[in-house]
Design goal:
The complex is a heterodimer of chains A (399) and B (370).
Chain A lengths: L21 H34 L30 H34 L4 H14 L4 H13 L9 E3 L3 E4 L2 E4 L1 E4 L3 H29 L5 H20 L3 E4 L2 E3 L2 E3 L2 E3 L1 H28 L2 H9 L4 H31 L11 H13 L2 H30 L5
Antiparallel strand pairs in A: 1-2, 2-3, 3-8, 4-5, 6-7
Helix pairs in contact in A: 2-3, 2-7, 2-10, 3-7, 4-7, 5-6, 7-9, 8-9, 9-11, 10-11
Chain B lengths: L23 H10 L3 H27 L20 H5 L1 H6 L8 H18 L6 H21 L15 H27 L4 H16 L2 H15 L8 H27 L2 H9 L4 H16 L1 H14 L11 H9 L8 H29 L5
Helix pairs in contact in B: 5-6, 7-8, 7-10, 7-13, 7-14, 8-10, 9-10, 10-12, 10-13, 11-12, 13-15, 14-15
The chains are: A alpha+beta (399), B mainly alpha (370).
């Protein structure tokens, strides 16, 4: 503090006025901000209390244990009926949100990687088609795309009697998409066990192969072995038990299909729009990631005698992933948050069920909006924590 | 060929022309379409994709479409698109319920906006500083008085009557203009040395970025009224505008922070050594460099904001998409919503694509590095 006037010629020990002291200023401004935030918070809370009291709205989370009294159109995982509580409705809608996000993320990643690589293709037509696709879809609002798929495509399909089918097993009509559902008969547990055994074996073989390559330099075809194991072992198990899995085909009965597994059109439209839209962003990320790996790396790998596929697998992709993962994470987060647009086409996700129906019934706006926001915040934090962990694992280990 | 017979001194051999397979039309076609069996397969797939998409699309939108007429009957025997749908509903799609005889109050500011943006974008136009100042201060004031009315003898137009593309532009422009300054303040707060200010900024940014815009809009439409003292009632549009602005300000803050982080410490120290105080340092030294670095990010946020304006239809405002959706559910015009969606997609695409192209151009123009 005593040196802050050192620029001036005279009297370096002269007292600095209090309002020129950076530390005092910092304290003053922070106190001001604390006061502002506290006062604003106080006003908001007291206003809200007044309003709630005047309008006779209950407060607190007690409503979660009361009977919901409304139906939810789509609940693939857990049983739900009108007599269940709001808490159970919350669970159902949360699972619906997670399901749509999960399926969307997987499809968007696959499609995005394909598109990103296609844009870099040496084939002029393929790269231009990918470019047109990406530039078109990423510049059209997601909500419009959801509306298009739902109202203009899926709801405009013919009714169940004239539904289009694929090999008479998968049916698409304006009531949704119907696929065969597996029925696990007696003995199918063995197939599951065989599957788990195969995974354990693959992990063991991978470790052993890495050790052998480190010790002797001899490579081992891990991928082919793994493929053989993961298909072969369950197949043998199925042979032994006499194919215990049968399929429940969807059939036209009366006015609609019965049996099989049913995907409502809202779900199909939402997944289609979300994954196509996000895929265009992922494609750009993948393209940038691959372009960030300098061509010298590929040339050096070739000069070392590494073949094409191993160059990609061991040299290019690990380096590209380092560039790709951080923005990819934020795309996954975006997709999860965008899944809330489900409310616009009445797919019963968290926002529709809670910010829509439950809010209408109970009127407890503060609690309900807080619950939905907290859920999305938690999902965001979990996804970014996981991707940060993965990113750390993939990051360059520097000496 | 004849060159092979000749004898040359070492180093005097004339340059040979490249082989025919490498240059010209043949070389280009060979390398792009048929350099390997895999490439040939890809070419065939690509041609197949074009064959199944482009001709039906063109015949639906252009060749088999009905362009004239203003009733549904005009489209009776048409296999393609029915564009009279758009023509009939153009007033709703553009302005929603804004009174017909007052439309000049919308058109005039939109015209000024178009001229102003054109003047700012075209490099040769002089007085850029004055135009910017007018667009940032004069234009919003003029537009506000014209849009809302109630003074200068203009009749009051309630915001529930606003809508269509006009409302979309209002939300997008207000969001763009307010989110950048708020975002800059938040970004500076996040990099501040004062723990309280930093914590507040981080909390604000992460809260807004962690939740979907829909929940923010729901909060704005159902929770804001509870926050206000008795009797104070905010307009629904204003609440949505506040929600959209704060939401995109949080994203903008992260973009600006990226730019601030990229500025070397020497720039700060240099500015301080010159005796500049904090506002001057930021205004003259740091921000011009930082913002220039993150122009693509800023424009991307603008584009995202423009696309996100569609969400206001969920809380009951009839923006461009909402008006088209409304027109499509009119009993007289059932079954023509595809035309509406395609038209809306085209308009949104034009706005977003031109913004992204302009940002690329600006990035090149402002690239003064080496």
């Amino acid at each position: 503090m005593d040196t802050s006037t050192s620029g001036s010629e005279q009297a370096p020990s002269e007292k600095v006025p209090l309002w020129y002291d950076p530390q005092v200023r910092a304290l003053f401004f922070q106190a001001l901000v604390i006061f502002g935030v506290l006062y604003g918070g106080y006003i908001l809370v007291s206003n809200t209390m007044d309003n709630l009291e005047r309008q006779g709205i209950a407060s607190g989370f007690g409503f979660l244990n009361t009977t919901a009294g409304f139906a939810i159109g789509y609940s693939p995982f857990i049983e739900y009926s009108e007599e269940n509580t709001y808490a159970r409705a919350f669970l159902v809608s949360l699972l619906n949100t997670l399901l749509v996000s999960f399926v969307g993320i997987i499809l968007a990643t696959i499609l995005g990687f394909i598109l990103g690589v296609a844009r870099l293709s040496s084939n002029w037509l393929i790269s231009k088609i990918a470019m047109v696709f990406v530039e078109t879809l990423r510049n059209i609002p997601l909500l419009l795309q959801i509306f298009f798929w739902y109202f203009a495509v899926l709801r405009a399909l013919p009714g169940p009697r004239n539904s289009s089918s694929f090999l008479d097993t998968i049916f698409i009509n304006n009531r949704g998409m119907f696929t065969p559902a597996p029925i696990f008969n007696e003995g199918s547990g063995l197939i599951g066990i065989a599957f788990i055994v195969a995974i354990v074996l693959i992990v063991a073989i991978k470790r052993w192969a890495k050790k052998r390559q480190d010790d002797t330099g001899q490579p081992f075809p891990v991928f082919l072995t793994a493929l053989g194991l993961i298909i072969g072992l369950p197949f043998i198990a199925a042979l032994v038990t006499g194919f215990p899995v049968s399929w429940d085909y969807a059939e036209l009965k009366g006015f609609n299909f019965k049996g099989g597994s049913e995907l409502p059109p809202e779900f199909v439209a939402l997944v289609l729009a979300l994954s196509l839209y996000t895929a265009t962003f992922i494609a750009e990320i993948v393209r940038a990631g691959i372009m960030a790996v300098s061509h010298g790396q590929t040339e050096a790998a070739h000069a070392l005698g590494i073949n094409n596929s191993n160059t990609l697998r061991l040299v290019v992709i690990p380096q590209a992933l380092r560039v790709i993962i951080p923005p990819l994470t934020s795309q996954y987060l975006n997709l999860t948050k965008n899944s809330s647009l489900a409310a616009a086409i009445a797919y019963p996700d968290l926002v529709l069920v809670f910010d829509g129906t439950v809010l209408m019934q109970t009127g407890q706006a503060v609690e309900i909006v807080a619950i939905t926001m907290a859920v999305y915040l938690t999902i965001s934090l979990i996804i970014s924590a996981f991707m940060n962990w993965y990113n750390k694992k993939m990051a360059l280990v520097e000496r | 060929m004849e060159n092979q017979d000749k004898q040359y001194e070492p180093g005097t051999h004339p340059d040979m022309p490249p082989p025919a397979s490498e240059v010209g039309v043949y070389g280009w076609v060979y390398h792009n379409f048929a350099s390997s069996p895999m490439n040939i397969i890809l070419t065939i797939i690509a041609i197949f994709i074009i064959y199944i998409t482009v001709p039906p699309l063109l015949s639906w939108t252009i060749f088999n479409a009905q362009w004239t007429g203003d009733t549904r009957e005009a489209c009776k025997d048409v296999t393609g698109a029915c564009w009279p749908f758009i023509n009939t509903w153009r007033k709703v799609i553009m302005y929603y319920q804004y009174p017909d005889d007052q439309l000049w109050r919308v058109n005039l500011p939109l015209g000024i906006l178009a001229v102003g943006i054109a003047a700012l974008v075209i490099p040769k136009v002089p007085f850029k500083g004055f135009i910017t100042l007018f667009m940032l201060i004069g234009f919003p004031v003029i537009s506000y008085f014209l849009f809302v009315g109630g003074s200068f003898g203009l009749e009051v137009i309630e915001t529930p009557k606003w809508g269509g593309l006009y409302l979309t532009l209002v939300i997008a422009i207000v969001g763009i203009v307010t989110s950048l300054p708020i975002g800059i303040v938040l970004a500076l707060g996040r990099r501040s040395n004062m723990p309280v200010i930093k914590a507040c900024s981080v909390g604000f940014i992460e809260l807004w970025r962690g939740v979907p815009l829909i929940t923010v809009l729901f909060m704005a439409s159902v929770m804001f009224p509870l926050f206000m003292p008795e009797g104070v009632n905010f307009d629904k549009l204003l609440r949505a505008l506040v929600g959209v602005s704060l939401f995109s300000a949080a994203y903008m803050a992260e973009v600006v922070r990226g730019g601030l982080q990229a500025i070397p410490k020497g720039q700060y120290e240099g500015a301080m050594a010159l005796g500049l105080n904090f506002p001057k340092m930021m205004y003259f030294i740091i921000m011009p460099q930082a913002l220039k670095l993150v122009i693509p990010g800023i424009v991307n946020t603008f584009i995202g904001l423009f696309k996100d304006t569609t969400l206001v239809l969920i809380i009951g405002l009839f923006d461009f998409l909402g008006a088209i959706q409304l027109a499509g559910t009119n009993p007289k015009w059932l079954g023509y919503n595809v035309e509406g969606y395609v038209f809306a997609a085209f308009i949104y695409w034009c706005f977003c694509f031109s913004m992204s192209r302009y940002s690329q151009h600006l990035e090149k123009k402002l690239h003064t590095g080496h």
